[in-house]
Design brief:
By secondary structure, this protein is mainly α. Helices cover 64% and strands 10% of the residues. The protein is built from 3 helices and 2 strands; from the N terminus they run αααββ. A two-stranded antiparallel sheet has the order 1-2.
């Protein structure tokens, strides 16, 4: 347990140091005159928004159409050779063969 704890502690310490370094560099970058905040550059892009709406919708349609045919095929009643009734009780399973 000692090695795992020291490894976790070192990973946490490295994360803290990396975050502090990133925060410091980002603050220096913000102080520069040429810094323009990203949302001011791009407010929206209709083409991209349409694309990332249409593509997942098409993928879902390609998944849904075959699955509906399989779902309705399961509702067809067949004449089985025999049936098995399985009951799940608290500590065991019971089976009935017909």
């Amino acid at each position: 347990m000692g090695k795992e704890k020291s490894y976790i502690d070192s990973v946490i310490a490295e994360d803290i140091v990396a975050y502090e370094k990133f925060e410091e560099e980002f603050e220096e970058y913000q102080l520069k005159e040429e810094f323009v905040w990203f949302p001011q550059l791009f407010t929206h892009n209709t083409t991209i928004e349409v694309i990332w709406t249409i593509i997942p919708a098409v993928i879902l349609i390609f998944i849904a159409v075959p699955s509906f045919s399989l779902l309705y095929a399961m509702d067809q009643i067949w004449q089985p050779l025999f049936t098995i009734k399985v009951l799940g009780n608290q500590w065991y399973w019971s089976y009935e063969y017909c």
